[in-house]
């Protein structure tokens, strides 16, 4: 037991620093991926609600395709496929040999793409929950589209979307573990390395699990507080909304 | 795009489909049984409910990949286990992958089941009680069918997500569709073509399952169909 504490601690023998850095990397990848997803999701939600038919169709296809492919495969496609693409292009310009691409960038983009498909649905649902009267009122008072989006649509939709976006953030954190296949030293990769060199795999994978659990638990709390704050001054929650 | 290459790769990847399907079917059925047990535990006592909640919290709060690693690599840390009769089984990547997928699926499925059970109206239960049904009969005839119908859309999503999750078994050396694709890429270095082929296989599989679930939903809600609405009550 004492040995376990030394190994997981911050002393010279301990892996504490490595695991802490790795945990922060997990957070960074997740944050980038979530942001990508939010941008993509917003664009797709807009395309589905008010876009021209071509874009609406494209957004639908994007959703169906991304929901039908394993996350691991999407990451492989971005990482290895991206490397193949970049190498081919670089070779055209006289560069020889393979070009390495960043696991962080490929991983964030891949998970962002996956999450974007789901976030689009969350945001679209939230838009439809906006009382139509407020939109009409905004139109009647002569608001321009951007003002209306900023003042009327976004605040109301985000409030309804918060729980769904919270769920998405949780999935993004868990999906970020898959980025370890690119060699990026995030939590899962770090505990794998530690498990190998100490020959204590159970201890370190358990520690890794605890790190993810800590992240998901704390962010769950943060989202719950945010939801509570967003609901202040609202009439009692509509059941089933 | 090199069509000849794709025509060559596609059958190679399809060879992994039986393994993908067997992983999915085994872990889904095992997960369903475990989920029912968790629901029973939740209904049995306060302590049982706490355990079920804790189980769900742990398995939903950590990535599936770390659960697979914990079972596949982690268990080897214990000499007692390595010398036990179970070891020949627990050493197998197939067994470990199914075990992890199953335990993970149980957590999600029990939550879906909980939602379904909550949606069973108290009126239906009262009616069953008044008609003199025993508890097991009521469960079998009234509660579970209603809960199942209610939970079907969410469960359909869980089925497809498990089919996709089987791709993680490739990380512990299993040669299912993703594993074969990975091996093919390390030989041919044509990542885009190979992984896109694999993606198409999963996409078709998931689309078929989604269709099946929609069909089942429509079949199980004939009472809501417009044709019946018009008939006199």
Automatic annotation (TrEMBL), chain A:
InterPro entries named in the record: AA_ABC_transptr_permease_3TM, ABC_transp_permease_HisMQ, MetI-like, MetI-like_sf
Cell location: Cell inner membrane; Cell membrane
Transmembrane segments: 20-47, 59-79, 202-223
Domain ABC transmembrane type-1: 23-223
Superkingdom of the organism of origin: Bacteria
Gene3D superfamilies xrefs: MetI-like
Family stated for the protein in its record: Belongs to the binding-protein-dependent transport system permease family. HisMQ subfamily.
Record's protein name: ABC transporter permease
Organism: Bosea vaviloviae
Higher taxonomy: Bacteria, Pseudomonadati, Pseudomonadota, Alphaproteobacteria, Hyphomicrobiales
From TrEMBL, chain B:
Compartments where found: Cell inner membrane; Cell membrane
The keyword Transmembrane appears for this protein: yes
Assigned keywords, A-Z: Cell inner membrane, Cell membrane, Membrane, Transmembrane, Transmembrane helix, Transport
UniProt domain ABC transmembrane type-1: residue ranges: 17-213
Pfam families reported in the protein's UniProt record: BPD_transp_1
Main location: membrane
TM ranges: 55-75, 194-216
Coiled coil: none
GO-annotated cellular components: ATP-binding cassette (ABC) transporter complex
A GO molecular-function annotation: transmembrane transporter activity
Family, similarity comment: Belongs to the binding-protein-dependent transport system permease family. HisMQ subfamily.
Protein name: ABC transporter permease
Organism whose genome encodes this protein: Bosea vaviloviae
């Amino acid at each position: 037991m004492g040995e376990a504490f030394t190994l997981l601690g911050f002393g010279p023998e301990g892996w504490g620093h490595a695991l802490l850095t790795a945990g922060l990397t997990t957070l960074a990848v997740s944050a980038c991926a979530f942001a990508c997803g939010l941008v993509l999701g917003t664009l797709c939600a807009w395309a589905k609600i008010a876009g021209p038919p071509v874009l609406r169709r494209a957004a639908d296809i994007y959703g169906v395709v991304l929901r039908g492919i394993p996350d691991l495969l999407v990451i492989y496609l971005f990482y290895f496929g991206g490397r193949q693409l970049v190498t081919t292009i670089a070779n055209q310009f006289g560069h020889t040999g393979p070009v390495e691409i960043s696991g962080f960038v490929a991983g964030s983009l891949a998970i962002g793409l996956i999450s974007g498909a789901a976030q689009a649905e969350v945001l679209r649902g939230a838009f439809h929950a906006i009382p139509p009267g407020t939109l009409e009122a905004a139109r009647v008072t002569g608001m321009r589209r951007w003002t209306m989006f900023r003042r009327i649509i976004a605040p109301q939709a985000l409030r309804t979307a918060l729980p769904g976006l919270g769920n998405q953030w949780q999935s993004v954190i868990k999906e970020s573990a898959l980025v370890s296949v690119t060699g990026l030293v995030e939590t899962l990769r770090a505990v794998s390395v530690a498990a190998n060199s100490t020959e204590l795999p159970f201890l370190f994978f358990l520690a890794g699990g605890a790190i993810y659990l800590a992240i998901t638990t704390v962010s769950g709390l943060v989202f719950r507080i945010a939801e509570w704050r967003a609901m202040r001054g609202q009439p009692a929650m509509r059941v089933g909304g | 795009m090199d069509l000849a290459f794709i025509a060559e790769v596609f059958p190679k990847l399809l060879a992994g489909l039986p393994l993908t399907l067997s992983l999915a079917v085994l872990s889904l059925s095992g997960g369903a049984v475990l989920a029912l047990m968790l629901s029973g535990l939740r209904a049995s006592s306060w302590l049982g409910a706490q355990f079920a909640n804790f189980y769900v919290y742990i398995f939903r709060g950590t990535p599936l990949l770390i659960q697979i690693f914990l079972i596949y690599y982690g268990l080897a840390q214990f000499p007692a286990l390595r010398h036990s009769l179970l070891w020949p089984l627990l050493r197998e990547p197939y067994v470990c992958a199914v075990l992890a997928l199953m335990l993970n699926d149980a957590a999600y499925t029990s939550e879906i089941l909980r939602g379904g059970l909550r949606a069973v109206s108290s009126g239906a239960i009262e009616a069953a009680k008044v008609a003199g049904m025993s508890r097991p009969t009521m469960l079998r005839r009234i509660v579970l069918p209603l809960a199942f119908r209610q939970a079907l859309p969410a469960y359909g999503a869980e089925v497809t997500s498990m089919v996709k999750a089987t791709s993680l078994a490739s990380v512990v050396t299993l040669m299912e569709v993703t594993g074969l694709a990975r091996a093919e890429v390390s030989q041919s270095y044509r990542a885009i073509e190979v992984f896109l082929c694999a993606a198409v296989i999963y996409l078709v599989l998931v689309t078929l399952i989604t269709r099946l679930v929609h069909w089942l939903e429509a079949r199980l809600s004939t009472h809501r169909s417009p044709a019946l609405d018009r008939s006199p009550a």
